[in-house]
Amino acid sequence: MVQKRILVIEDEPNISEAIRFILTRNGWQVEVEADGLAALSRLRADPPDALILDLMLPDMDGFEVLRNLRADAPTRDLPVLMLTAKGQSADRDLAARLGVTRFMTKPFANAEVVSALQDMVGP
Amino acid sequence: MSRSALTGTRIRARRTLRGIRQTDLAREVGVSPSYLNLIEHNRRKVSAPLLGALAQALGVSSDALVEDSDARLVEGARAAALRSDTELGDLERIDDLIGRFPGWAKVLADTHARVEGLERVVEQLSDRMTHDPYLADALHEIISAVTSVQSTAAILNDDEALAPEWQDRFHRNILTDSGRLAEGAVALVNYIDNAKTGETGIASPQEEVEAWLAREMYHLPFIETASMDAAEAYLAGQVDLASSASRQLALAWLAQMQADARAIPHAALDAALGLHGVTPDLLAAEFGCDLDAVLRRLAHLPPDLAEAHGVPPLGLAICDMSGTLLFRRPVEGFAYPRFGGGCPLWPLYQALRQPHVPLRASLVTAGRMGRRFTAFAVARVSGPARMDLPPVLRATMLLVPQAEHSGDSAVLAVGASCRTCPQLECDARREPSILATGG
C-alpha cells in the first residue's frame, strides 16, 4: 500500500516534531515546512494527500495559504486541517468560508489529530 | 429629588414603623390629619418647627428625617431602574422604597454601581483583547508552549517502546517548552497585575506619560518657572517614565505647558476666570493666545484655583490628523478608547474639518445613564508652515462636566469607541458593539 503523504506547515519546531512523530507512527509519510510562502510552491509542485496548516505563520498566515490553495486547480480539493491557537468564532467562520476541511484549536489531543486525518484521507 | 420630598416618605415610614396612626401623630404635632397626609405623600414642604415636632413625636432626630445620604440612594436606585428593560409604572414611588426599605434600596444602588464598574472593566478588557498586541502575542506563545508540552508528554506516556534517542529528544523539548511556558505565564501575570492596580497595563510611551501626569494630578507647579534643563533633570528621576521615548514625550509636554504658562499666567487666569468663568473663547481673547492653549491650561488648573472658581476636574483629548489620540486626560463619566480612534462624532474630530474654528457642543455619553458634558474643541496647524507639504493639524477638546439638569436640549450622543458604544443606530458606527443588547 502506498504511504499517504502529509505536509505539516507549522513554525513551532517542537510542535511540528511531535506531529511528525505521531503521524509517522501511524504510517503516514510526513514533510514539514515552517513558512507558508515556501510551502505554497512545494504544494503546487507536488500536492500531498493532506495538509496540516497552522494559522499563525510568519510572512503569510494560514488563511492566506488556504486562499491560495483554493484558487489553484491542483490544490483546490486538497484536504486541509487547520490548527490554531486562536479559537474565536470569527476565525473559524473565515476558515470555513475559505474552504477548510477541518478546524482544530490548540492545544489538541494527539489522537484527535490522527482521527481527523483518518477521516480526511483514510488510514 | 428634593429634600422635603424624601422627608415626607421618611416621616410616613417612621410613623408606620412605630405603629402610630396618622390622626394621632397629626394631633400630637398640632396639624390636621389631611395636612400630615399631604406631607407624608411629599406634596407639602415641612417647616423647621414642624419637622422638630414630628421628629420628637417619632423619637428620632430631625437629621434622621432629612439625611442627605438618601439623595444618593435615590439616584442609585433610580439609575438601576432606568437601565432595566422592565417598564416601571411606579418609578415615582421610589421615595417609598427609600423610606420603607433603605437597606434594600442601598443594595439596589450598590449593585447598580457595581454593574456599571464591571461594564467599564469589560469595555477595557474587550478593548485590550481586541487591540493589544502584547496580550495577543503572550497568549499565543503560552498556547503554543502548552500544545507542544501536551502533545510531547502524550507521546512519552503512550509509547512504551519509544526509542531512547526519541525519549531524550522529547524530554529536552518538554524541558524547553515548560521553561517557555513558565516565563510566559509570569510575564502575563505581571501584565495583568498592572491592570489590577489600575494602570491597565502600561504598554506605550504615551501611556507612561499619562500615568506620570495622573500621579502628579495633572499639576506641575515647578514648570511655571523652571528651565527646560531643570525639567529634563526632573524627568530623569520619574519612575513612571521608564522608556526614553516616554521621557521625550514628557519633555515635549512640559515645554508645551511652560509655553502655555507664559501665555496664561495663573495670577492673570485667576482674575480672568472670575470675570468670564470657563468660557475658553473669551479667555483666549483676554490673553491674546490660541484657543488650544486655553483648553490645555484649563485642563491643568492648580487645585486651589479650580476650587476657588468651582471648576470641577476637566477632561482633555488631543488628536492628530489621523484621529489618533495623542493625549487623554480622563474625566469621570467619559471614556476614551485605549487603542485607536474614538467616536467619530466627537467635536474633536469635527474640529479637524474646520481648522481654527472654535466649536462648542453639548454631549451626552451614549447609554441610559449618559453623563453630560460641554465640549470645546479647536484644530490648529502644528509646526511651521511649509510651502510644499500639507499642513499638519492637531485638534484639542476640553470636556466640562455639565450640571445634571443643565436644560440644554441640543445634545449630541457620543460614545467612546464603536466597540463599546451601546448606541446601535448610528451612521458613524464602524463596527458592531459588544453591548449589542443595550444596557
TrEMBL record, chain B:
Domain HTH cro/C1-type, first and last residues per copy: 11-65
Database matches in Gene3D superfamilies: lambda repressor-like DNA-binding domains
Protein name (record): Helix-turn-helix domain-containing protein
Spans traversing the lipid bilayer: none
InterPro entries in UniProt: Cro/C1-type_HTH (IPR001387), Lambda_DNA-bd_dom_sf (IPR010982), ScfR_C (IPR018653), TransReg_Diox_bact_type (IPR050807)
Domain of life: Bacteria
Keyword vocabulary terms for this entry: DNA-binding, Transcription, Transcription regulation
Lineage: Bacteria, Pseudomonadati, Pseudomonadota, Alphaproteobacteria, Rhodobacterales
